[in-house]
């Protein structure tokens, strides 16, 4: 039979670890709406492949496409070898803003 004096510190230590882990998970989750882009409805959105093909037909080489703030954020290389970052409207494929990435 286990000694009660040894069991209580073990339970308290286990409880403390569980509380700290839970707090760490809650802090990591945060309240950043940018982290919830995966929850957005995507009815009518172009697929990633469609966006990439459209950009390639315009002479760009996309190498990273991700969802950010309700749009596709694209990193691509233009015909002169410049790296460009642009936001793409997910329903039309039109650029929302384009900027060179220095």
Automatic annotation (TrEMBL):
Highest taxon of the lineage: Bacteria
Presence of the UniProt keyword Signal in the record: yes
Signal peptide range in chain numbering: 1-28
Residue ranges occupied by any PepSY domain in the UniProt entry: 15-98
Keywords: Signal
Entry protein name: PepSY domain-containing protein
Organism encoding this protein: Spiribacter aquaticus
